[in-house]
Amino acid sequence: MSRPVLTVENFGVDYLVDPVVHAVRDVSFTLRRGEILGLAGESGCGKSTLAYGIVRLLKPPAVITSGRALFHDARPDASPSAASPSSASRPPAASPPASPSSASSALVSPSSASSAPASPSPASPLPASRDVDWGELSAEELRAARWDRISMVFQGAMNSLNPVVSIRDQFEDVFVTHRPRMSRDERRRRCGDLLERVGVDRTRLRSYPHELSGGMRQRVMIAMAMALEPQIMIMDEPTTALDVVVQRDILREISRLRDELGFAVILITHDLPLLLEISDRIAVMRHGEIVELGDAEQIYRTPRHQYTRKLLASFPSLTGTRGAFVRGAVPGGAVSGGVVPGGAVPGGVVPGGAVSGDAPVDAS
Ligand SMILES: Nc1ncnc2c1ncn2[C@@H]1O[C@H](COP(=O)(O)OP(=O)(O)OP(=O)(O)O)[C@@H](O)[C@H]1O
């Protein structure tokens, strides 16, 4: 089992509206280095609030009421270097505007973070410590650390590309801002390499955002989020605006890149079958709490919590008879060919141990 890269302890977030919304309640979990942790749960259960809270990207009326997110830095001495201000564009999505460092007030709303104004360049390095309490960082340290240590891809992030700036200039700006000592040639080479990693031809660097399809733009965003080799990528429905086939292609691509590059991912998507396919573990949230956390295989085969069973049963494709993808053989199990979200499970076993064709589990 790999070492943790993030430990979230007793995390709580309220929205101070009337009545108060307890959006995240006493959430604790560990993200292991290099793993994909899927966050599942119905709309409004607190997934985004948790994700944004971890990296302090919320703003009032959200208030972090308890807990902390401890980042275990693998390269505490390689702090982001100071940089000169940059003007061509901003690192989209992952770099929020200047903000106070209060541990208790959240800073940038999910909806506005991806369209944040140009961010000042990071001015100070992270503390040279292996364990960094994200809530203790100053605004400057947060700006330096986001994107560099933990990057985020938000829903609709592709829309935050500046329409009048070429992909090359926007891309290079990430390096100009965060790696000011990198030579121009090196920057250009890295930008092209990164684009190709996500399946976009490097000649597209010359393009403007409107010349790219939605899928390509989102791939560009993902490439940018990978640019500084973050140790964690938080992806909140990164493909929602795209059609299903493109969504799945991109999410599988993220899984492949994780295999290559070793970053850990917190992935939020409503596509539960795909989440089961590409996640190592899945945390199931309900009413702001994690009600179950386990290996994807276990969550699928032997969900312990009634709500998990209900969630699985709410996907007809998980219990129906169409489609085919195989997660892997199940040792000694009734299922010979592995799990088939999107279709029947060979052997007729469905989530929760029911028999294929059974009525959904009643979680009421
Ligand atoms: N700005 C806000 N003011 C008040 N309540 C809010 C605000 N933003 C979110 N909430 C509430 O907080 C709770 C958690 O919302 P959140 O967006 O985190 O859920 P989610 O699981 O990410 O939902 P979805 O899957 O639809 O994105 C919900 O009850 C939501 O209505």
TrEMBL record:
<keyword id="KW-0813">Transport</keyword>
<feature type="compositionally biased region" description="Low complexity">
    <location>
        <begin position="77"/>
        <end position="92"/>
    </location>
</feature>
<dbReference type="InterPro" id="IPR017871">
    <property type="entry name" value="ABC_transporter-like_CS"/>
</dbReference>
<keyword id="KW-0547">Nucleotide-binding</keyword>
<keyword id="KW-0067">ATP-binding</keyword>
<keyword id="KW-0997">Cell inner membrane</keyword>
<feature type="compositionally biased region" description="Low complexity">
    <location>
        <begin position="100"/>
        <end position="118"/>
    </location>
</feature>
<dbReference type="InterPro" id="IPR013563">
    <property type="entry name" value="Oligopep_ABC_C"/>
</dbReference>
<keyword id="KW-1278">Translocase</keyword>
<comment type="similarity">
    <text>Belongs to the ABC transporter superfamily.</text>
</comment>
<protein>
    <submittedName>
        <fullName>ABC transporter ATP-binding protein</fullName>
    </submittedName>
</protein>
<dbReference type="InterPro" id="IPR027417">
    <property type="entry name" value="P-loop_NTPase"/>
</dbReference>
<dbReference type="InterPro" id="IPR050388">
    <property type="entry name" value="ABC_Ni/Peptide_Import"/>
</dbReference>
<keyword id="KW-1003">Cell membrane</keyword>
<dbReference type="GO" id="GO:0005524">
    <property type="term" value="F:ATP binding"/>
</dbReference>
<dbReference type="InterPro" id="IPR003593">
    <property type="entry name" value="AAA+_ATPase"/>
</dbReference>
<feature type="region of interest" description="Disordered">
    <location>
        <begin position="74"/>
        <end position="131"/>
    </location>
</feature>
<dbReference type="Pfam" id="PF00005">
    <property type="entry name" value="ABC_tran"/>
</dbReference>
<feature type="domain" description="ABC transporter">
    <location>
        <begin position="6"/>
        <end position="312"/>
    </location>
</feature>
<dbReference type="Pfam" id="PF08352">
    <property type="entry name" value="oligo_HPY"/>
</dbReference>
<keyword id="KW-0472">Membrane</keyword>
<dbReference type="InterPro" id="IPR003439">
    <property type="entry name" value="ABC_transporter-like_ATP-bd"/>
</dbReference>
